[in-house]
Protein: Cardiolipin synthase B
Organism: Methanorbis furvi
Amino acid sequence: MGSWPAAAVLVLLCLVIPSVSAGFLITEICPDGYAKGDGDEYFVLSGTGGLDGWVVTDGEGSVRFPAGTSSSDPLIVAREAAAYYETHGAYPDYEVLSTFDFVPDAVSTGRFQMANTKDDVTLLFLDKPVQSVAWPGDFSSKNGMIHVFSNGIWDERVMRIGQSSVLPRTFVADSVTLFVSPDSSFEVVNGVITDTQSEMFISMYEFTHPELAESVADAAFRGVNVTLLVEGGPVGGMSSEEKGVLNYLVNSGVSVYTIESTDAKPARYRYLHTKYFVSDDFVTIVLSENFKPTGIPLPGTRGNRGWGAAVYSADVAKYFGSVFSADLGGYDIYPYVPTSDPFPASWSDEEIVVHFPARTIENVLVTPVISPDTSHLIPDLIHDSREKIVLQQAYISPYPNGARNIWLDLVLDAGGRGIVVQVMLDGMYYNTDAESDNDEIVAQINRLSQNDAISAEARLMFPGKSITKLHNKGMIVDMKYVLVSSVNWNYNSPNNNRESGIIIENEDAARYFSDVFEFDWGGVSGEFQINAPGGVDLRYAVVVLIIVLLFVIWRLKRK
């Protein structure tokens, strides 16, 4: 038999010898878990191929895998499988200290245990460093934080134990019904609830609306399987009205759950601030408003300004259903325990003229937005804008420690490159009393516009003939994309809260909500523009001027 050509031998060697570049990386670390002694700490090794020769060390101990082990899936290596299961509700692939016979043991030497706030680990292949991870440095570790390596960086998003990692998806919906509060929200929301035949699940920050509660209860009475998830610790605590509604729903056969923190484990999200529900695995309603009488006013009555959409699509319903299931399956979910609080009485504000009935459009592109998983889609939309940005928000807040709001900066940058920007914020006292809130932001935008630094204008909306307050969290970009959401423009909402929304790609949808915005912008709903270069609220200037005039008149009379 003759000798093989050298090229053939080289090809064969490439097939049988593993490549380091096609090997493994540490892609996830949680050094500070919730279990006592951090038995639930873990790291994840991702890659494809044999694991012989691969070692993870922290300088005091090391971890490797049994001889002959190979994998093409990410491998979770926990310190203790029992503690990991208690925290995560699942089993790791390997454990360092043996606690369960059915979970394979990693081969360890020395004492491998990651310190909470300061440590480093190194991934070796055949005793040569492949990757080093240090904290602080690559990231700052905190209790319950999961640190993920993606796109070449650590912690591209803030992530806690138990949070989901859904990916962006765009769907073609059969149709979408557009609506706004106060004009047409009740008819659409109540209509979908009333038409539900088999199943409905609701994820809501607050639920105090007696009429919607009665409709939900009626659905349960006729055999609909209804599940409700609400925030157990809203700002100011759960009101007596909400407890009364939840008592009534539980007694009507609705499965009601709350998401809450305990002393041992904080909730996965700072707040469940979502506002959506799914009916019969086909209709998904997403909105900026809670199930409250002011958020979803009775037909023809005054209420909040908010936007909403009913999406008719099995794919969109399935997407939101997977989010709901992930939320409902967490360690921080508790069945609601009824109290003695009574069912609230019906309440409505003054009657109004309805200007914006619901409108249905067909064959619409819809992209769900879920915080904190895919909230980056919102700044991405701003960054990619080319012509115009219309923003209507309850408020815009600085980030912690006085840091700049990066979403607002993106809007200002857009205005700086010539894109037309209109910003409307709520003018209620609790959004204008502080030193760096809505009135200062409006003044800042208008001051920059006056100095020709940006192409933008901003206004405050005050209560008017039809609007009690501006509670919207919406945006229109290039008269083509519409954001309908629960996402506020602060740090926690996109990064730490569970939020919900959709981006609708459709010119008819943009035109519908643009008409509503221009109605509000024109002052029909009540608005006050701030143009003072120094950021002075003109209302106060008028009051000061009146006082000065009265003083002058008094002095003249004395003469």
